[in-house]
Amino acid sequence: MLPHGDDEEKWLAEGIAGIQHNAFYMHRALDSNDLKDALRYSVQMLSELRTSLLSPHKYYELYMRAFDELRKMEMFFREETARGTISVIELYELVQHAGNILPRLYLLCTVGSVYIKSKEAPAKDVLKDLVEMCRGIQHPVRGLFLRSYLCQISRDKLPDIGSEYEGDADTVNHAIEFVIQNFTEMNKLWVRMQHQGPTREKDKREKERSQLRDLVGKNLHVLSQIEGVDLDIYKETVLPRVLEQVVNCKDELAQHYLMDCIIQVFPDEYHLQTLETLLGAFPQLQPTVDIKTVLSQLMDRLSNYAASSIEVLPEFLQVEAFSKLSNAIGKVIEAQVDMPVVGAITLYVSLLTFTLRVHPDRLDYVDQVLGACVKKFSGRAKLEDSRATKQIVALLSAPLEKYNDIGTALKLPNYPRVMDHLDNGTNKVMAVVIIQSIMKNTTCISTADKVEALFELIKGLIRDMDETQDDEIDEEDFKEEQNSVARLIHMLHNDDPEEMLKIICTVRKHIILGGPKRLPFTVPPLVFSALKLVRHLQGQDGDVIGEEISATPKKIFQILHQTIEALLSVPSPELALRLYLQCAEAANDCDLEPVAYEFFTQAFILYEEEVADSKAQVTAIHLIIGTLQRMNVFGVENRDTLTHKATGYSAKLLKKPDQCRAVYACSHLFWVDEQDGIKDGERVLLCLKRALRIANAAQQMANVTRGSSGPVILFIEILNKYLYFFEKGNPQVTSSVLQGLIELIKTEMQTDGSSDPSADAFFASTLRYIQFQKQKGGAMGEKYDPIKI
């Protein structure tokens, strides 16, 4: 059991003190060129590394102190041999007489570095000798640091191609053999650490081993830097030897780390050309190894390699990378029966990313990956694991981001099947992602079949997915979701009227099922989309003979009537009324009087039966009056009926000021500039007089309730209406009538004790306008001239 806390700090301090003490005397000996004492004190210094009391982290601190001193010893040995004081061979023999094996091997490696540099013996022989002798240390921590030192001092002295230490033709194999042998021995020592000590300290040992992993991985990095390791040597020698060691060590930590190392340190091109060998090792790893992370990293690296240059893509086709990766993932998932769903999905996300980068034109590959996902989900309930659902969103988003076209995703049969496995919340999230993709890329969905497929995908937004309505849904989120559906409806378009009508019918079929909460958001865009088609067809009527479904305005108005009726179940009468009036105006443009009259009838029925709020009634009656004023399709009888209704309802509003304003607005129904024949001056005057009577009544009521005559602003508004019709040439509105009204207002303003600044400013502005018209001259100036202000 390794100690902790203060004891360990004390032992570390003692070890460092021992190294410093002996290093001091060693330096004195070095300065005196006393080789014998230098070796004696260096052995004593290095003996501090024989401790078993320190954790790997603390031992590393001790090792680095000794390492720095060994660098100085190496320089001394180099100078001594250069001066000829002692030959390097004699020095190599001399240090082997050190009493203890650990200091002896550290010194041997140090002299070995000088020996190789002197070139008095082939580098391969010295390295072979050193790597063999290091087997004398079998303590895991001490052995790992010793071999790490050997790796460090030899990395620039390997007999590599182009190196100054290059020997015969077979020299690279010796360099590779040395590094692999050192790697193999270090890995054995590293794995052995796991099996030393009591079981209860297993977690602690794993943590300590994690701290030492880079010592082992450094060998693979050195191996990857050897110039002579070309693709053939890597394929035939390096990879099989390394994988053999990884598989045979049967240690979870070692296998995960070393597989990751292989993927990170060797070139992507090598991975591609040895894919089968590399992937063949994965199913042989321990069941507890986190293969998904390593395999995902491999696919990510290959994806980036494919994206780096278009020239490398043929290599991927040549080695059939997709099928090999797909098969390997299938085998791994099959072998690891306990792998959580999120792990499998992560693998499929990486495979899909790889496919979209390497084979973007192969939709069958993309669908194959999605199909494998569906197969993994089969027999399972909807996914509740948040990490898994997040990965599925990533999986389904990848094709949208790659192709920038929902149409491509709609061609994938397995795309909706994957979405079906999402829980309701994530289904909505994915639906919003799809809509955002369509909006971002301004994708136009142009056929009813595509619309049907699309609405099946986003069904989580357009109808309740379970029987009980979720009362906990955030109101703001709900509004945003429904607004996104509304925006989507405007992206559905086809220039062919027949197909566009089919699209409208498809959308209607889906949104009618949305329930009362959604209809106020989704019905209006559908209505306006249909009205756009109506205006495109303007002038057509009747059914085309021989066609069962024909895109005519009448047919569309029938659909619109039924669609708007659905809003009454919400209930949302004000919205329905507005939409009926929009349809009436469109029917007017198509010259369909019966249809327009029916829509107005429905609007009046809604007003009578459903609109109860007084403010809503005011808004509604002004909308009705404004729309009716623009209608030119009605005959005399129908128009009279509707205008009579409008004026009647105007006079029945609750508040007198509202009555007054609605009644004087009705005056425009009897005088329309654009239409010949509708210039009934008498009825205009009747409306204005009636408005005056109501304004007068409002004044009297104000006098009774507040003790004053009340505001005169209604009279000023009516005066402005009189001026409008006076200018338009209504013979019933004369200058004497205007004069009388001006005098009335002045009298009212004088008798009113309380002044209203807004009314004063309005009246002053009106008088300035009259004065301006008088001064302008011409025919209009003559008309205004009799008025005295």
Automatic annotation (TrEMBL):
Subcellular location: Cytoplasm; Endosome membrane; Golgi apparatus, trans-Golgi network membrane; Prevacuolar compartment membrane
Keyword Transport attributed: yes
SUPFAM superfamilies linked: ARM repeat (SSF48371)
Domain of life where this protein originates: Eukaryota
Gene3D superfamilies, alphabetized: Vacuolar protein sorting-associated protein 35, helical subcomplex Vps35-C
UniProt GO BP: intracellular protein transport; retrograde transport, endosome to Golgi
Principal location: cytoplasm
GO CC terms, sorted: cytosol; endosome membrane; Golgi apparatus; late endosome; retromer, cargo-selective complex
Keywords for this protein: Cytoplasm, Endosome, Golgi apparatus, Membrane, Protein transport, Transport
Membrane topology: Peripheral membrane protein
Entry keyword annotation includes Membrane: yes
Chain's role: Plays a role in vesicular protein sorting.
Family: Belongs to the VPS35 family.
Protein name: Vacuolar protein sorting-associated protein 35
Protein's organism: Musa balbisiana (Banana)
Lineage of the organism: Eukaryota, Viridiplantae, Streptophyta, Embryophyta, Tracheophyta
